[in-house]
Here is the input.
Amino acid sequence: MKLWKRNAVVAAIVVFVCAAVYLNWTYEQETDAGKVLGQAELVGAESSDPLLTGGAADPSASPAVSAAVSPAPSPTAAQTSDYFASARLNRQEARDSALSLLQDAAANEEADAATLTELNEAIETMASSTVSEAQIENLVIAKGYADCVAFLNEGSASIVVAPVEGGLTEADVARIAEIVTDETGLTSSQIKIIECE
Here is the structure.
């Protein structure tokens, strides 16, 4: 009876973590790309903050201030870059939370061998997914795409690619799908490729 309860708890934790990752990802898709939480804008080139001025008495001598007032990249490029950074951060935070839960459950002194084995397998799967996502992202970028973020789930993959001039073509989709298939062993029908807007 204890084994069944522990297995049910582990399965419930895994389901909740997967649901949280999915909900977080869909929420990020729906948020306004122009709004970035925590983004600050330096108005004017004067600041008495030593962190912004690099400790210099003259604000104009500071590289941080001069960089803050220099022209920003085009809004589309900045928004796209912010999306990918935000998506990676959210994915990592969700993963860290799930890993913490799994490690806490594995550290439970009352856990039996079968439960510990399942927890360790879940941790190994998570680590493997993390490595595969990084590999996919690096290989897609190496093929000439500006940026990419990969989300691997059990039996599926979603790949978000930075916008390309003229939109993604069938050749682009095939090239990216081949990278994902080689890295994960998934079939083309299990892979979703999305162009970031």
